[in-house]
Amino acid sequence: MLHHRQRAAILELSDKGLSARQIAKVLKISRPSVKKVVGSGTETVPRALRSSRLEGRQEEIEELTKRCKGNLVRVHEELTEQGTVVSYQALTAFVRSQAPPPRQPAGQYDFAPGYEMQHDTSPHDIQIDGRTWRMQTASAVLCYSHRLFFQHYFRFTRFEAKVFLTEALRHFEGAPERTMVDNTNVIRLCGTGRDMVPAPEMAAFAERFGFVFVAHAVGNANRSGRVERPFDYIENNFLAGRTFTDVGDLNRQARQWCQKVNAKPKRNLGNAVPDELYASERGKLRPLPLFIPEPERVEIRIVDVEGFVSVDRNRYSVPPAWLHRQVQVRVTAERVEIDEGDETVVHERVLLPLDQRVLLAAHRPPRGEKVRLVRELDEERALSAILPDIAPFVAALKKHGRKAPAFLLRRLLKMARDYPHDALRAALGEALRYGLYDLERIERMTLERIADHYFRLRDPDER
């Protein structure tokens, strides 16, 4: 299509009496084009009006676009299934030809030193130990100096949020007046934007460091642009071509990369260096508390039949004596602490891979004795509850008995439940004195002691 300047030149030469052939030769334009311009008599470029097969179906296209969540590929597939033969390019051209929504010019947000920090998360696929995992990248940026800090987590709940924000504030060596977040349920209890109310535990966390949580309006991602923009940089620079041995290695390299990036000039800061701007911002940040408690998550678990406690899809061992007991589990960023009464077992927390068994050597029972130890414990506990003063005989029976201790203790427990305690106690005392551990003979000795009290014995001379 000819530009309006070319059309003006054609009309000017035509007024001077030049023919279409001469004008076409001078301007190097085809004669039909020259004739069209001379015939129109105007230098205004005519608007191309092309009919479309989708004319008159605007409402249907809008409904399909809404139903397909703006995905024109799906809209084209739906139209094809309905029998409408139209190319994808024609569909996109028709959608663009409709009245576009009015656009607002981009604005600019200015922040005073120490006033605001922005926090957000974004999912990324990361190679860890030869396997791809979907990890959540948690990032925080000081709005004045653009100083960046981020870490990666397998999942991101309120516990991980408190862990990350604690590390971020320690990295920044202070807290801002407020922290801008999106409207995720990790931070908020109800409401959105200015009406957002943080969850009580997150509000208490913020109060400890002296800042408040605020949320941007729904869909207003520009308001959190300081933290949104680096996610693409992280994905296409830090994560590009890098592999990691475990989550700890991943987060250690992330810290090193943050130190490297924060020491480089940035074009959007007028080639200023974030670390240099941070030097002037640090004095405006609120000082951290003298004592910062380590974030933890407390749960109640039941020890399973194998002597393990399940935490975040991994299993941690406990002593065999804790089987089937209820324990309290305290999870921190690096440890799993399991409490049962006054005893505590501490494990190093395993994040990836999942479904692992973490077994301490002290919790491994001798080969072939796992079930026997549990049974002996149960029967000994029952015997000590019924006859606490026969403990010396029980210990000697386990040591000198000719059958399995579990079988002997089970037989002795049955006798303690069936026979009078005084008679059985006397029989056991006599057996211990003479080193007798045959339970059948001890049972006869018990029966002889109670014969006159509980049974009417026949006289041998009685016929």
What's the short version?
With about 475 residues, the protein is of the alpha+beta class.
The biggest sheet, with number of strands, parallel, antiparallel or mixed sense and barrel status, is:
5 strands, mixed
β-strand amount: 15-25%
- Provide mean pLDDT, rounded: 85
Give the domain tally.
4
Would you tell me which CATH topology of the largest domain applies?
Nucleotidyltransferase, domain 5
Low-pLDDT segments, ≥5 res? none
Q: What best-fitting shape do the alpha-carbon axes yield?
A: elongated
Corresponding CATH architecture of the largest domain: 2-Layer Sandwich
Number of helices: 16
How are the strands ordered across the major sheet?
A: 3-2-1-4-7
Q: Give the helix proportion (percent range).
A: 40-55%
The succession of helices and strands, N to C, reads HHHHHHEEEHEEEHEHHHEEEEEEEHHHHH
- Full CATH superfamily name of the largest domain: Ribonuclease H-like superfamily/Ribonuclease H
Number of strands: 14
CATH class of the largest domain: Alpha Beta
Structural class: alpha+beta
Specify Rg, calculated over alpha carbons: 41 Å
Cα distance, first to last residue?
137 Å
List the helices and strands and how they pair.
Layout: H1 4-15, H2 20-27, H3 31-40, H4 58-67, H5 72-81, H6 88-97, E1 116-128, E2 131-142, E3 148-153, H7 158-172, E4 178-181, E5 188-190, E6 197-198, H8 200-209, E7 212-215, H9 225-238, H10 247-262, H11 274-281, E8 297-302, E9 308-311, E10 314-317, E11 326-331, E12 335-340, E13 343-348, E14 357-358, H12 370-386, H13 391-400, H14 405-418, H15 421-434, H16 439-454
